[in-house]
Design goal:
The chain has 730 residues and is α/β, with parallel strands linked by helices. The protein is built from 23 helices and 21 strands. 44% of the residues lie in helices and 11% in strands. The two termini are 45 Å apart.
Length: 730
């Protein structure tokens, strides 16, 4: 492509758990290419292998052999024979067969083949593709249990080279590879946007060749050219991420799981004439082990990986599978999140160029009853590698709270969006670019497993770094906490899908609602006046709704341009109509963390002011800072301790702890303002601390605290002390 438009690469993302949708580490893939040959004849591998006719048997066979997932494909040229008219009958047997066998599928939507009326170079192509993807996503979503997985365009890099550079695939262009790659990236982005309009939680795989290009030992002067050829394999992903040519529309949200297609011929010596290049084999010194190649991709992108295609022909099939298994497991041992390995193709098929019988699958062509003979050697090799593969598809992510906070800090400091007129845009960018929105989800749901105490740490840090981001995140965390506590399993799954898609949630609990939740007999009697100002920023808002029979519940609303759509979900709370005290107690503690972070900003501003005036050695100033620091850290420990009690059996003790933390934080922040504001008079830092969202009144909890302090046999109770050690996993 032409010289890329510069965009600074963001700091490496923390390693996130991305749950595999598959029951096993090993998958099977059905070759689904549909491109035309230069002669004009269309290839249709699904038809040639009989997979569409024998899909039920094929998927039952996958499940029986322990292949708990699949790659399969839709044939666009059969689905949209006329522009804008979609008929999915050609894929129905595959979808039904997979569902009957309980085998989740990643569906390829464009595997090289285009309808004859589509011009891939036309400006209309991305929109054409998006319409097809939206129709396909809607049809598949209605027939898919659990997450929907799509591969928008298979091997953008190879498609651009074969179809745009050397005239091997349709559209048979030469010297236009860069233009075709840009078109395919635009189309993939438009298609993903369209699919997310149907299902916000749709998951995506981008399958790209994994190669290693080496300089020939006899031609060391070609090292630079070999390096450029090697780096070319990453261009499609860099474009999708927006790291180069951001004008194409790329961004971090467009790369989910990276699929890597790896075959015995994927390493070679560079040669000026591609047809003369020599393959590098595992017995040669230049050969790069698979685990190192996988680690390099993960280091570059920080995304989970899937070996999306791998296989060999004839007698090489079994040893190649075992070699790939060793490399994949070695990569996992290095901490690389490899979701699995897809044996591809899983059935033999005719050659693309000459219709020869390619013995590259586990099973052969079907007989009259759909039976496929298995290759004994490959079957035995598969059994051996399955026996040594851990049952768990993905090890826990190597992310600590400290790592995640460091990443937030680095991203906030390197952000290019920090302009005063776009503070909200910068806040959303920060939360989405760091995956903070999905961090509270459990590991198995695609998050970091950030618990309540960790969330307080993140909020305090964000409040120091970016006030708008901190307040949006506090509201997001509150909404997710309520959905997790009060939602049904299905509702929680729907929310997790939306969060993984990058949706921002918000929570609006007016003071009357907060008191009602803590004391149900004091239910508030009027609808809150208006909505919070941030309501137009969120994708989903948890807020009160009046029950038809009287009383109040919480509902999940979706803001629209002109008000709000009817509630998506209504949360009725516990069977007796109340809510756990932890709902309001949690919001209180999160807002206390915001206040402590704001006080930290004021503390740091005061230190800087002291340095500028060279008064660091002033004893009076030193005592001020010590007094402030002691108050802030004491309040912080009480806040974290109260969080630990919220889900305990003694809710009265929990509310007492929340009220005590409340008083401690308020006192510490007031002391901070009193002691340090004179040093930085007029600074925005002090205004920020005063302008934070109000705290719940907690009248009920305060009364409980007063009673406990004055009437309890001892204080603190022997079973409760703020000196208990908070422990985080190492």
């Amino acid at each position: 492509m032409s010289a890329p438009t510069a965009r600074p690469a963001p700091p490496p993302l923390p390693e996130l758990a991305a749950p595999s949708p598959f029951a096993t580490f090993w998958l099977g893939g059905f070759e689904c290419s549909t491109q035309r040959r230069p002669s004009g004849r269309r290839i249709d591998v699904i038809d040639a292998t009989g997979h569409d006719r024998w899909a039920a048997q094929d998927y039952a066979r996958l499940a029986a052999w322990g292949l708990g997932g699949a790659r399969d494909g839709l044939r666009w040229h059969l689905i949209e024979r006329r522009p804008g008219e979609f008929d999915f009958s050609s894929v129905e047997a595959q979808v039904v067969g997979a569902a009957s066998a309980g085998v989740p599928v990643i569906w390829d939507l464009l595997h090289y083949g285009l309808p004859d009326f589509v011009d891939v170079f036309s400006p209309e192509f991305p929109a054409q593709f998006a319409r097809y993807v939206q129709a396909a996503a809607a049809w598949l979503r209605a027939r898919t249990h659990g997450e929907l997985w799509l591969c928008p365009i298979n091997e953008i890099s190879f498609f651009a080279w074969g179809g745009g550079e050397v005239g091997y695939l349709n559209p048979f262009a030469r010297g236009r590879g860069a233009g075709l790659k840009a078109q395919l990236v635009r189309a993939a982005i438009a298609g993903m946007d369209a699919a997310r309009r149907v299902d916000p939680g749709v998951r995506f795989l981008h399958a790209e060749p994994l190669i290693a290009v080496h300089a020939h030992p006899d031609r060391p002067h070609e090292a630079g050219a070999a390096g450029r050829e090697h780096e070319g394999q990453f261009e499609a992903l860099d474009l999708l991420l927006g790291r180069v040519h951001p004008e194409l529309g790329g961004g971090p949200e467009y790369v989910d799981v990276i699929g890597l297609n790896y075959y015995p011929y994927n390493q070679w010596h560079h040669h000026p004439q591609p047809e003369a290049r020599e393959r590098v084999t595992p017995d040669q010194p230049a050969y790069q082990p698979l685990d190192l190649l996988l680690a390099a991709v993960h280091d570059r992108y920080g995304r989970p990986l899937l070996i999306a295609e791998t296989g060999a022909e004839g007698d090489a099939r079994a040893p190649w599978l075992e070699q790939v298994a060793r490399g994949a497991l070695a990569a996992r041992a290095r901490g690389v999140p490899v979701l699995g390995v897809c044996l591809y193709p899983v059935v033999n098929h005719p050659g693309w160029d000459d219709d020869r019988h390619c013995p590259n699958g586990l099973w052969d062509y079907p007989d009259a009853l759909g039976h496929r003979a298995a290759d004994p050697a490959l079957g035995a090799a598969l059994a051996r590698v399955q026996a040594v593969t851990p049952a768990e598809p993905l090890p826990p992510p190597a992310v600590t709270l400290a790592t995640f906070c460091h990443h937030l800090t680095q991203t906030a400091q390197s952000s290019t969006h920090e302009v005063e007129e776009d503070r909200t845009g910068a806040a959303l960018h920060l939360l989405r670019a760091t995956h903070a929105l999905r961090a509270p989800l459990p590991l198995q749901a695609g998050g970091l497993g950030l618990d309540d105490r960790g969330a307080l740490t993140v909020l305090r840090l964000l409040s120091r770094l970016h006030s708008e981001a901190a307040q949006l995140y506090e509201s997001h965390l509150g909404a997710l906490d309520l959905m997790n506590r009060l939602g049904t399993p299905l509702q929680r799954e729907q929310v997790a899908q939306a969060v993984r898609a990058g949706d921002l949630f918000g929570l609006y609990l007016p003071e009357e609602a907060e008191e009602s939740l803590l004391a149900p007999d004091r239910a508030f009697s009027r609808w809150p006046r208006g909505w919070p100002e941030e309501a137009d920023l969120v994708d989903h808002l948890v807020a009160p709704v009046q029950r038809p029979g009287g009383g109040w519940a919480l509902a999940l609303w979706r803001p629209q341009l002109a008000g709000f759509a009817p509630p998506e979900i209504t949360l009725l709370g516990l069977p007796d109509g109340t809510w756990p005290p932890a709902t309001v107690g949690g919001q209180t503690l999160r807002r206390l963390a915001l206040r402590l972070g704001a006080a930290d900003r004021l503390f740091e501003a005061g230190r800087q002011a002291l340095r500028l005036t060279s008064r660091q050695q002033d004893d009076q100033q030193g005592r001020r800072f010590v007094r402030v620091a002691a108050g802030l850290e004491g309040a912080w420990h009480l806040t974290r301790h109260a969080t630990r009690l919220l889900d305990g059996p003694d809710q009265a003790a929990a509310l007492t702890a929340v009220a005590l933390a409340y008083e401690a934080v308020e006192a510490a922040c007031e002391q901070t303002l009193q002691d340090l504001e004179p040093l930085i008079r007029g600074a925005l830092t002090a205004q920020y601390l005063r302008g934070l969202p109000p705290l719940p009144s907690l009248n009920v909890a305060r009364l409980a605290l007063e009673t406990a302090l004055l009437d309890a046999p001892a204080w603190p109770p022997p079973t409760w002390t703020a000196l208990d050690e908070d422990r985080w996993p190492p």
